[in-house]
Amino acid sequence: MIPMIDLKKQFSEIKDEVFETLTEILESTQYILGPKVLELEQKIAKYHGVSEAIGVASGTDALHLAIEAFGIGEGDEVITTPFTFFATAEAIFYTGAIPVFVDIEPDTMNIDPAKIEEKITERTKAILPVHIFGHPADMDKIGKIAVKHKLRIIEDCAQSFGAEICGKKTGSFGDAGCFSFYPSKNLGAFGDGGMAILQDRSVADDIRQLRNHGSKGAYKHERVGFNSRLDEIQAGILLVKFKRIDQYNDKRRARARLYNEFLSDSIERPVERPDMKHVYHQYTLRSSKRNEIQKVLREKNISSVVYYPVPLHLQEAVGFMGHKKGDFPVAEEAAEKVLSLPIYPELPEEAVKEIADIINNV
Fold first, then answer.
1. Model-level pTM?
2. Going by DSSP bridges, is the β-strand pair 77-80/124-128 parallel, antiparallel, or unpaired?
3. Which residues contact 38 (CB under 8 A, 6 or more apart)?
4. How far is the C-alpha of 11 from the C-alpha of 250, rounded, in Å?
5. Which CATH entry fits the domain spanning 7-102+110-242: 3.40.640.10, 3.60.110.10, 3.40.1670.10, 2.60.40.10?
6. Measuring CA to CA, which residue among 131, 94, 88 is closest to residue 110?
7. Which helix (H) or strand (E) segment is 179 a member of?
8. What was the pLDDT predicted at 192?
């Protein structure tokens, strides 16, 4: 079987260092918000060129607490994409705000900046772009719109750790960048975890307070918060992987180049815009024969996944918003054609060629 990602191979290469780190943490008996969390926060902040980083329990929590810390709440609107994982909208709903969807670009499948301004109202408080599949959204255009309308930008970087625009990392363009450390991510933990990065110290302190039951310490609770703390064991494992993240991303990019080389020109392959660095959390092609391709791959014992078969505006959970099919046609067309193929740093070249040959034959 060729899996979507082979974490066993990755673990076999780092297990000695992981076990050494785990032993150190277990013997320290500091398991929550200990020195490993602080070290990871400092290193990730430096990597992104920002001053603040706050480890939390998940990528969803990173988004939720960032939105909350910016004072966005009941009745407010946050503009985002309908073509993403449901957590993006969930985090907005958690605060009492409402996601306002904007259709996507046909090539990158990121939110289309040309369609944002028509959705801005007096209740709009922020734009929440998602760097889908590891390709950066157009932060230059989004940034100009935000400045013009005095809106916050909260970047969903769950799939884009290490991605760049003109050498600048995603997550450092807006008011906050939010990351997921779910195990399958480019930088993945052995459980769940997340992080918010930003420059504003006062907002960062608010997120720190919110993640810890609304307390700044000594059992004094100035507000109602949440229990959302990155634990020490996950931070330690992430530190082991973090020193290799650029290497991991380079290898993903190399596998993507092989797919591009081996796949027929009749296949709509992922784009990578000039001055942008795609980190290929997913290698996602598009084809009107998507279902047929997936069926044949399954018969050959090769994994593939449809990310995402139902755009957010058509999900049953948000039916109360009144959206219907046809509201966001570009996102809907993508949902009918996309197929993500196996991609991970350890994926053998011959496996890429085998997968491409099967797809070309279909």
1. 0.97
2. parallel
3. none
4. 18
5. 3.40.640.10
6. 131
7. strand 176-180
8. 97
